[in-house]
Design a protein that fits this description.
It comes from Jiangella ureilytica. The protein is an alpha/beta fold. It contains 32 helices and 23 strands.
Length: 1078
């Protein structure tokens, strides 16, 4: 089904050093203080110490070269203390010289961005010098973000050249990503506006210039964007290192006082943006319809805002900006700008006619009707008329639409959160839910017919729904397939993997920041810097998922450390860094360490890795139980164990001819060295242990070992410095990027462990199988009459099976099988039907519906149908978890849903206007309602025709084909539906086998396996059906598929399955008599 997008353009790539705006002055002030302190230390050590030594003891060099006799005399004659003092002076001079040498070695490395040569004898001096230089560079070279240091910082692309995507008009079926270059920021300035300049003075930085000229140092990126690539006196120009030279002429943003653009006299008004506003909200409030937000863009695009910027991106407005609201007399002319905004909607789509008579406008007083305290009522308001689009006859979204990764619009009026309130990001949430899904499949496999798996309730159910609201499995797949595709290309070309250090994932694209330039294959898109590449989210559809899943994971230690601008996930390759220090108080450091451990343990782009927790989070080893985590109470002999492993891995690399781990992975050699071990140290290390750890991770060639430390000091160059007093602020050093750290506080940590622990609880609510007729076993190796059909053969209809005479006559001939009392057969309502037993759809809704609202309105319909009488708060929590929902947003959606569902023959709305909660007219039904009327709570008591009719309703697993972030409220019901369908399929298959109907047994078991492929009970039914049909190939195929699924789930076959397979595959003994039945 075609769809529209509010925005599908990738953001510009994040410049580590250019495009990251500090959140406040506190961290910047701290960086300046640290830089000043480091500079003072350098000056004192380099100049103060020699001056002091010279003043105290004079020139250390003698006036003449001493003779050998003078030396022996000084060493053999009694010492009056002068020789001792002279020795101390020489020791002091040698110490000064060693530090000066270390500093001189580090300075060129810091300026060039290369790693300094290693001087083993001056290891401590060299590390101290590198740290001091990094602090000075971070404070004085590039303002708030660290410049090139000895840690080989990532070089960013020029921000004005970042690829963006042209937006598609709403009428188009699907977006086509087309990269283009954004115009330089200077082109946005109007000619009539005077251009201000600033002549750079000695000692100035972009931050200092922004403070002097713009009043806020945080606005330095605005100056940078205006001056990238502009030729300067002397032949240089501003680039991503942000070095500026005295005499340069820098262009400045216009003065705030001159930025007020006149508003055309067309009856237009203005709106000052408040915190939390979106253009959609403003359009709803001022124009009556959020879909008219492009009019606000058109009317406001030429207005220069108080901070010197313009509205170019509909998704990005800032508090204090002025938005022009067009009046009814006319609208400002539309200026084509395909790069920065979506095309305006045609005027024909804005109706001039009043609403139809059957949808009278509600008076303002009726927005929130008065209600008794005991009942929560849905407050409604009739929205303005619109020109909706009639949906096509087949309303089911196609596969490409359902698989559209992060580019897929949510189709509602709210912003989808990318992390929970406690700081859990979309990738970690997806990993946890992936583990939960596998465990629930195991629960389903192990339960008995009639039982129901244990599910969370209360606060735990709320925790799961919150995780589902932020989880983004499509983004996880994007990262996974992108990295594996890159590895596959490197293997084909015979080159090493590119040295990835940092990844950044936004809703539009995945960005790779390499340590060196490299050539990446399509569909990666190059930027002006050869070491920064991006992959548009829509490009994941061009990747062959089935083929790439067989490619070994190239970067298994990539993990989210926090979230930055545009809610982008910032990922670090811990292998590449070697060490990462989490610097801050103990409790907050533990929260960050817990988040790192959970994501590493559940990451899908790590085929295998070992996470070793030392003195922290001991519960995770058993709680997650993914086979990746171990816990040690103390460091003990761990460092010695890792040193031995590193030595063996280096030997393996050398013997294979690989010069690095990246080379080995790309060439498929030294496989034993691939699996990384990430050590998370919750206890402090001693000086000797720190030195041993540094030697372990810094020696070349690098091996797959990394460590994350916590406390108040860094072992290596990389650290995540937690900001005091703000739990959601941190700075990633040495690049100086401010992030919101991903963390698991104690409450959410316990909730996740308890949520996973429920999957180990026994099944509940068993019902008794009243049939009492076990299915017999066949002769070992016997083959029945021929009815050869492949396992996956499934006709489109059930007409023959649903005929009561054909089924009942066969059952009546078997005296052992009494027919149960049939359940009451339900007749679908005369109104719309919400289909849930497969892809979620709505049938027989005769009203119009906007294509962009189809998914959202379908989910609202499903919620109301399954939860009649619930009020607006429950609807808000279900539909927009974690988001701010206005009354107008909800009322508009309900009004559109009412118009879509229409009215019955008596003129009554199928979605009535009521005061006691949302509920549908009795004529609206769901296929789940029909199922329950046919089968009831116990399928063993339902008649065979009713079971056949119920299975006709099943089109796949319930709630398939929906956005992974949607329908979190329905997970409990989804598991109930799966259990009910599996039990009914098993019951019908048993009856068919007892009646000798192999075709019916095959049909029933196949439908059940579509819903839960891992259910061994149904596989045994399928195998018995193939045996009854005499289909040896079908038996072998079923056994092979069942075994593969069990292996994927990491579970052993059940004893009953093993015995059945043994009977069917062992040679038939020579004996007479009645064959043993299966």
């Amino acid at each position: 089904m075609p769809r529209t997008h509010r925005s599908t353009r990738p953001r510009r790539t994040m410049s580590f050093g250019t495009d990251v705006r500090p959140r406040g002055r506190r961290s910047r002030f701290g960086s300046v203080l640290r830089g000043l302190g480091a500079l003072v230390v350098i000056v004192v050590v380099l100049a103060g110490i020699p001056l002091a030594l010279t003043a105290l003891a004079g020139n250390p060099l003698p006036d003449s070269v001493p003779s050998w006799g003078d030396v022996t005399s000084a060493l053999t004659e009694p010492d009056d203390g002068s020789l001792f003092l002279q020795a101390l002076l020489w020791i002091a001079w040698l110490g000064w010289i060693s530090f000066a040498v270390g500093l001189l070695v580090e300075i060129p490395a810091a300026l060039s961005g290369r790693k300094a040569p290693r001087l083993p004898a001056l290891r401590f001096q060299q590390r101290a010098a590198a740290g001091l230089l990094a602090a000075v560079a971070a404070a004085f070279v590039v303002g708030p973000v660290g410049a090139a240091t000895a840690a080989e910082p990532v070089q960013p692309p020029a921000p004005q050249r970042a690829p963006v995507t042209t937006a598609q008009a709403p009428a188009q079926a699907a977006p086509e990503v087309a990269t283009t270059e954004a115009a330089p920021a200077t082109e946005a300035a109007t000619p009539a506006m005077a251009q201000r300049t600033h002549t750079v003075q000695r000692g100035e930085s972009l931050w200092r210039i922004a403070e002097q000229e713009l009043g806020d140092g945080m606005r330095w990126p605005e100056i940078a964007e205006l001056n990238y690539g502009t030729p300067q006196p002397g032949g240089g120009s501003l680039d991503n290192t942000h070095w500026i030279a005295p005499g340069w002429q820098l262009r400045l943003p216009p003065e705030p006082a001159t930025t007020a653009a006149p508003v055309a006299d067309t009856g237009a008004t203005t709106h000052v943006v408040a915190e939390g506003d979106t253009l959609w909200d403003i359009a709803e409030q001022r124009l009556g319809d959020g879909a008219r937000y492009p009019e606000l863009v058109d009317a406001s695009r030429d207005t220069v805002q108080p901070d010197g910027r313009r509205l170019t991106d509909p998704d990005l407005i800032r508090p204090g900006w002025t938005i022009t609201v067009p009046g009814t007399a006319g609208a400002p002319p539309v200026v084509a700008d395909p790069i920065s905004r979506e095309p305006a909607q045609p005027p024909a789509e804005e109706p001039a006619a009043p609403p139809p008579a059957e949808e009278p406008a509600q008076p303002p007083a009726a927005e929130e009707p008065a209600q008794p305290p005991a009942a929560e009522a849905p407050a409604e308001e009739q929205p303005p008329a619109e020109a909706p689009v009639q949906p096509p006859a087949a309303q089911q979204p196609d596969d490409a639409e359902l698989g559209d990764a992060a580019t897929q619009a949510v189709g509602d009026d709210t912003v989808v959160p990318l992390r929970t309130a406690a700081g859990v990001g979309a990738l970690m949430a997806a990993g946890v839910l992936g583990v939960l899904a596998v465990r629930r499949r195991t629960q389903q496999r192990r339960r008995e017919p009639g039982e129901r798996i244990a599910m969370p309730a209360g606060a735990l159910a709320g925790t799961e729904q919150e995780l589902r609201g932020v989880a983004d499995p499509m983004s996880v797949e994007l990262v996974d397939l992108a990295l594996r595709g890159l590895a596959a290309d490197c293997a084909r070309r015979g080159v090493a993997l590119p040295p990835l250090r940092i990844g950044r994932l936004t809703s539009e694209q995945f960005e790779l920041y390499l340590t060196d330039t490299a050539q990446l294959p399509e569909p990666f898109v190059a930027t002006e810097q050869g070491h920064v590449w991006l992959l548009p989210a829509a490009a994941v559809r061009a990747l062959d998922a089935a083929e790439l899943r067989e490619v070994p994971a190239p970067y298994p230690s990539l993990v989210t450390v926090g979230h930055g601008p545009e809610d982008g996930h910032l990922l670090l390759d811990l292998e590449r860094l070697g060490t990462l220090a989490v610097v801050g108080d103990h409790d907050r450091s533990r929260e960050v360490m817990a988040a790192l451990a959970v994501e590493l343990a559940t990451s899908p782009w790590a085929d295998d890795l070992q996470v070793t927790l030392v003195g922290t989070c001991p519960e995770l080893a058993d709680g997650l139980d993914t086979g990746r985590i171990r816990h040690l109470p103390t460091v003990g002999s761990l460092l010695g164990e890792l040193t031995t492993r590193a030595r063996n891995d280096r030997v393996a690399l050398a013997e294979s001819g690989a010069y690095s781990l990246d080379d080995a992975r790309a060439r498929g050699v030294a496989v034993a060295a691939w699996t990384p071990e990430i050590v998370l140290l919750g206890t402090p290390l001693g000086p000797d242990q720190e030195e041993q750890l540094a030697e372990l991770v810094e020696s070349l060639p690098r091996v797959a070992v990394a460590a994350v430390t916590s406390g108040h000091g860094a072992v290596g160059q990389w650290s995540l410095e937690l900001t005091d007093g703000d739990p959601d602020a941190a700075v990633l050093q040495p690049v100086g990027v401010e992030v919101q750290p991903q963390r698991l506080d104690r409450h959410q940590y316990a909730q996740i462990l308890e949520l996973l622990g429920i999957t180990s609880q026994p099944a509940v609510r068993p019902w008794v199988d009243t049939s009492g007729h076990p299915v017999g076993e066949p002769d070992p190796g016997a083959v029945g009459p021929g009815l050869l059909e492949p396992l996956d053969t499934l006709e489109a209809d059930f007409d023959r099976l649903a005929a009561p005479d054909a089924v009942d006559d066969r059952a009546a001939t078997d005296d052992e099988v009494p027919e149960p009392e049939p359940a009451h057969h339900v007749v679908p309502g005369e109104g719309p039907t919400v289909l849930l037993l497969g892809p979620v759809e709505v049938e027989d809704a005769e009203g119009p519906v906007e294509q962009s609202k189809y998914r959202q309105l379908t989910e609202i319909a499903a919620f109301i149908a399954l939860n009649p009488g619930r009020g607006h708060s429950a609807l808000d929590d279900a539909m927009w978890p974690g988001s701010r929902v206005t009354q107008n947003t909800r009322n508009t959606a309900i009004s559109k849903l009412r118009r879509w569902f229409g009215r019955d023959i008596h003129g009554d709305d199928y979605l009535p206007r009521v005061d006691s909660g949302y509920r549908f007219h009795p004529g609206v039904s769901t296929d789940w309602d029909q199922w329950r009327a046919l089968v009831g709570d116990d399928p063993t008591l339902a008649g065979t025709p009713q079971l056949v009719a119920a299975l006709e309703l099943v089109r796949g697993q319930p709630f398939t084909g929906v956005n992974p972030r949607r329908y979190g409220w329905a997970e409990h019901l989804k598991q109930e539906m799966i259990s009910a369908i599996v039990d009914a399929a098993h019951e019908l298959a048993q009856r068919a086998i007892r009646g000798g109907d192999a075709h019916l047994a095959r049909k029933a078991s196949t439908i059940g396996l579509q819903v839960e492929p891992g259910m061994e009970l149904l596989w045994r039914d399928r195998i018995r059906a193939e045996h009854l049909a005499g289909n040896r190939a079908g038996i072998d195929d079923a056994i092979a598929r069942m075994t593969a699924i069990s292996a994927d789930l990491g579970d052993d076959l059940e004893d009953a399955t093993v015995r059945l397979i043994a009977k069917l595959t062992s040679p038939a003994p020579q004996r007479s008599g009645i064959p043993e039945r299966l």
